[in-house]
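Archive entry: two folds, one per protein. Generate the first.
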Amino acid sequence: MAAVTIPSKELTPYDLPPVCVVTGAREGVTFRKVKFQWVPPTARFLVVFCGLIGIIAMFAMQKRVEGELPFSEEGWQRWRSGKMLVAGGLGGFLVALFAGLFAMSGHSGQGFGLGLIGAGFVLLIAALVMARGRGPMCKRIDDESIELELPSADAVAAIEERLRGGARGAPRMAPSAA
């Protein structure tokens, strides 16, 4: 996966080339609405050591960007399946966590409960590993730009060329009021 920094206001069909960010395909590409969010590492660090104060800081420091990125149908499906893997892994971890805590409080014993929690953690890590590389990943957002890690090196090269001043696509025409 290769990284590219894009001005936040240029996540539009006019500013980006029609190259799928996942597969690198140039045919059958459509622009899809996407949302990214990023939390600075310092805020995540605070969550671990300060609990509720860290969670509040995390929400206060969170940055978001919305726009459109080019996807082929195959690339869009791969990205959506990756997001579903992460959601399923997180859900499985939470179920295992609560089941493990419940088991430890009952007659099942601490070993069984810890085993459940461990299995849930392994499930979450496996889902994260399997989802990696299935779509764009947000690495950083600041006030003016977003840094994305894209699976397609061809898409990164095309976007960088466009940002350096390569040929722009035709602007979308607004429907006439006639």
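Generate the second and append.
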Amino acid sequence: MSVTEAILLTPELDAPPIALMPRQDVKRRPRYWNVWWTLSVVFMALSILVAVLEWLGVLGDLGVMLAVIGVGLSMMSGLTGALRSSVDQIGEAIVTLVAEVSGSREDIRTLGTGLERIERVLLDRLPPR
């Protein structure tokens, strides 16, 4: 039998994936408004406004510098907002995973004692070496 056949013939487990497990007693932090995303949008809107005023000739050469500064500030704010959101989501996922795993410690301990009993029975019944 090939490895592929062995994998395909393996029965499926009835255990639900961790993402679908009920998340009881997990304290979640309240959501907050990420100011960095707002700043990114505001800086980009100001950059577009400055670019339009530059195109109309109102600001002259000052408009090019202001547009470049606005785009740079928008990129910096956007990267900071993305990093902050990612770190918060990863932290929340870790907290949830730790809470779910800590709930199954008793199951693991019970399994361990069951395996110890099986080992004792086998040692008692098998002939000595």
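Annotation attached to the second fold: The chain is about 70% helix and 0% strand. Helices lie at 3-9, 35-56, 61-103, 105-125.
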